[in-house]
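> run fold Glycosyltransferase
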Amino acid sequence: MRRFSIIIPVYNRPDELAELLACLARQTVRNFEVVVVEDGSGIRSEHVARSFETALDIRYYEKPNSGQGFARNYGMERAAGDWFIILDSDALVEPQYLEIVNREIDRQQLDLYGGPDRDHPSFTPVQKAISYSMTSLFTTGGIRGKAKNAGGTFHPRSFNMGLSRQVWEQTGGFRITRMGEDIIFSIQALKLGFRSALIPEAFIYHKRRTDFGAFFRQLRFFGRARINITRFFPDTLKLVHFFPAAFTVWLFSFPLQLLIFKPLFQLSVLALLAYCLMIFFDSWKQNQSITVASLSVQAVFVQMVGYGLGFLSEGWKYLREPKGTVQTGERVEYPS
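> ok
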């Protein structure tokens, strides 16, 4: 039996899949297979998978669209490894990725793990700015993938996560196909007593979106997903999750502040300016680029407002609906 099965759901991304498979072909650990699941794409990737048959132990499956969570389940049902590693198709990995994972899951006796993401030197300034906004502790970066919850346990995210076959067998995989399916899965696994951890060295380069319009739609979806997680586990909604929504309401209240109480408006403008400067200089320090730093300020606003609006709209729906309602979604582009 192979040590690892790498599960990659694909939806209309053959070019990105080719780049990820090229990375996997250079891994220093070779005891793995790749399972590609084409989830009802209009732009198929079979030719890409077939082109790597001599470089990788790869299997390609095509199925009707059911969303990323169930596509991952489909792949894990057909996988042969002791461990299932789930990667988004728009990811890149270093040659030592599997070597690091192999070492750390044994050293720490893990049942599931997650890794962080970062930007690649080849990324465009917009991609680097988006990556900054999605990983910075001054935004929702800590909330989304790097921070532990209040109880001190790490919840792996599906863009870069792994789980043992035993975890798969006892959980049954993803309960829903999107709208926070990865966090719901992680919570379920942890409630069964499985051991989880972040492996900082097992990072990926995550391309994310390449323009702010698509990024806004993605983050609005993430805000909605946070509320959907609450439908399953109400006690997981923490005060920190309200931060983007509070920021959005505060931002939209500026005209009202100007009309009602001008000193409050002036104070808010100063606070917002201070926040923008903090983001600008922090990104400049990290990226060594004034262009990326400037774009990072824009990316943070897109991220916070997109997430905040999604959180507020889905939260309002949640308050008015019968308890026990779950939003699993229809056919959609993957919001990786």
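The radius of gyration is 20 Å.
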